[in-house]
Amino acid sequence: MLLKSIRIIAATVSVIVALAIAGVVLPKPIMLAHPDGPTSHRILILSNPIHTDIAIPVDDALRARFSFVGGTGLDLSLDGVRYLVFGWGGRAFYTETPTWADLKTVPVLKSLTLDRSVMHVELAGDIPDDSLYAMAVKLDQDGYERLVGAIRQSFADDSGNPIALTGYAYGPYDAFFEANGYFNVIAGCNTWTAAMLRQAGLVTGWWTPLPWMLRMALRLHNTAEIVAR
Questions:
Q1: What string of H, E and C letters represents the secondary structure of 177-206?
Q2: Is the terminal CB of the chain with fewer CB neighbours within 10 Å at N or C?
Q3: Does an H or E element contain 24, and which?
Q4: Which pTM does this prediction carry?
Q5: Where are the domains of the chain?
């Protein structure tokens, strides 16, 4: 009985390891990224052990595209604001877990099954180039515009207006909005980030549910001109 259990555990671990390797090594899409023009736009992929965000430098065009966040009290023209940070995730876990100390059973269970999704928007100042939690990615103009468009389309709209979640925020410089799609452990926040980057013309891994997998796949499948090594 014990031997059988060990074999089952070993087989399960082997499958998980194989999926992780395949998820990183197999490219999606197949073709390598080749920007048509100069890579004049630089964005950041921010990550912690379980989650990734996309940080986009703030300019007049971005302010105009996401002016609706001002309805939640976020001021994009505030002195010191350098980036607008976007993160997609499960509603229960994302909104109820600002720190690990706030971890609760029900949000965790929902994140492991199925949950409605939300978009988290945050204002950020300067982010150092050598930051351990940031990866720089360069895009051409077309790729940048596709990325911004795909992020905007991730917001759930009511007659063309994004739906803010009132009463949910980590602090004065962030807000939550209803988002399109459903969150689960298979297709979570990091697979959303990967999908956005593919819209921008980058190549990711076939399945990258964890931040380290996404970072590794980006470095593996894209040139040093596009992704910081």
A1: EEEEEEECCCCCHHHHHHHHHHHCCCCEEC
A2: N
A3: helix 2-25
A4: 0.89
A5: 2-221
